[in-house]
Design goal:
This protein is α/β, with parallel strands linked by helices and 447 residues long. Among the domains are: 108 residues, Nucleotidyltransferase, domain 5, CATH 3.30.420.10; 86 residues. It contains 15 helices and eight strands. Strands 3, 4, 5, 6, 7 and 8 form a six-stranded mixed sheet that branches. Strands 1-2 form a two-stranded antiparallel ribbon. Helix 3 packs across helix 5, helix 6 packs across helix 14 and helix 9 runs antiparallel to helix 10. The longest helix has 29 residues. 22% of the residues are buried.
């Protein structure tokens, strides 16, 4: 590290030494510029318009403790979560034989304390069932077939309940294969290899193939969709997980492309519904759709401006977003919505024209101007959200899985994951019993 000489020292130096000093300083500045550029590049991974602030809690200032004079506790009308006592035939009477202090035996019992606990059996082991199936022949139509009972899988060594348990461990608890096998061994004395667990999951995904295809058709016919995508490594290469969410369904597809070919595959060329998305250029393919661009992305992008005009610009955009929220908080007629859309679009256009004269604001101005007609669709059409938070929330589970497993080791693994993850997430959105739905799906297709 070269230390700057003071003014008096520089006056004493010869011409040649001054030149050497300046050249040394120049080399130092070049090195510092490269370090600055590398640090800014690394920081952009965490602070950018596509990364929500919730993902960077470590970059937020420490919040001050909140003090309130009100008594802490549940709000008024809160039902509570105290478990109800159950009717049971087993009981235990716990008696004391001596005083824990003096070890004396002269003990009286002035009162008793009642308690109810819920306990698991010390050992839970799966039942082995020998299956004998009749292989039949119909004398009327000459059809050969195998007898079914609707509860026993035709193939494989594991029953429906065992398969449901493994799917829960994999998709609800987010267990990796090795830890899933360890848990099954410790809790149920069930010794399985990781490959066996993967085979069970793949068989379940095959059973859900028809429902997954039906889910694709429902998404294709949905009038309103929230769409987002995130990267996921597959066999060392960068693939993409796409999330298509409607009010009642969620479809995940994993493809080796982030281009509009995925949109064409899932929605077709002529999709004419409403789509909420960010400003990724692939969405321009949906020329027949009505687009609402994500305000959360826009405000994150404008918040990156550090200059005085940039901060004013960000504040103005925040006020416009507040107008959207306030307008949509009440019921409006179709005419009022059209008028408000026209008014707010004109106001936004006026705002970006004003700030376009500032060089530091031009990137955000260009970002807005490229999709000027798509920022207030949520004002024009009832029920549309101004942000893409629904899609980002839907894809968050996949982001957690990515952090846990790192990558998919096969392309077949992507198909297994997208099928079961889509069905489970859809049942959760519809507030259905996941265990009951899995049992229904597996028995219908495997038994």
């Amino acid at each position: 590290m070269i230390h700057l000489a003071n003014k008096d020292d520089l006056k004493k130096l010869s011409k040649e030494k001054l030149i050497d000093e300046i050249l040394d300083k120049q080399d130092e500045l070049v090195r510092l510029d490269k370090e600055k550029e590398a640090l800014e590049k690394e920081l952009r991974k965490y602070k950018n318009s596509n990364t929500p602030s919730s993902a960077n809690a470590h970059l937020k200032p420490v919040a001050k403790p909140f003090f309130s004079r009100n008594k802490r506790g549940a709000p008024l009308g809160h039902i509570g979560f105290t478990r109800r006592r159950k009717e049971c035939g087993e009981s235990r009477h716990i008696v004391a034989k001596e005083c824990p202090n003096c070890h004396g035996n002269d003990i009286s019992v002035p009162r008793q304390k009642k308690q109810q606990i819920e306990e698991m059996p010390e050992e839970i082991q799966p039942r082995a069932i020998n299956i004998i199936r009749d292989v039949c022949h119909c004398n009327t139509c000459n059809l050969d077939f195998t007898a079914k009972d609707g509860i026993t899988p035709i193939q494989g060594k594991f029953g429906v309940n065992m398969m449901v348990l493994i799917i829960f461990l994999k998709f609800i608890v987010r267990g990796v294969l090795r830890k899933t096998t360890s848990f099954l061994d410790a809790s149920f004395a069930m010794k399985l290899a990781p490959a066996s667990v993967q085979a069970i999951i793949e068989r379940a995904a095959d059973a859900g193939g028809k429902e997954y295809s039906a889910l694709k058709q429902k998404i294709k016919s949905a009038k309103l969709l929230y769409i987002d995508e995130t990267s996921f490594r597959v066999l060392g290469k960068n693939w993409w997980v796409w999330a298509f969410r409607s009010d009642t369904d969620l479809l995940l597809v994993i493809r080796n492309s982030r281009g509009n070919n995925v949109l064409e595959e899932i929605l077709g060329k002529d999709y004419a519904g409403t789509v909420v998305c960010d400003c990724w250029r692939a969405y321009d393919f949906l020329s027949s759709a009505t687009i609402q661009r994500c305000w959360a992305h826009l405000l994150r992008k404008s918040a990156e401006q550090g200059s005085v005009p940039g901060r004013h610009f960000h504040k103005k955009l925040g006020e416009l977003f507040g107008q959207i929220t306030k307008f949509n908080s009440k019921e409006r007629t179709e005419k009022q919505r059209r008028q408000k859309y026209t008014q707010m679009t004109a106001e936004l256009q006026k705002t970006i024209k004003h700030y376009s004269h500032h060089e530091e604001c031009q990137a955000v101005v260009k970002y807005i101007n490229f999709h000027l007609e798509s920022w207030f669709t949520s004002v024009k059409i009832v029920g549309v959200q101004p942000t893409n938070n629904y899609a980002e929330q839907a894809i968050r589970e996949t982001v957690l899985v990515r952090k846990i497993i790192g990558a998919f080791r096969s392309e077949n693994g992507t198909k297994t994951y997208e099928t079961l993850a889509s069905l489970i997430a859809t049942w959760q959105i519809q507030k259905k019993d996941i265990k009951a739905e899995l049992c229904r799906m597996l028995t219908a297709n495997l038994c």
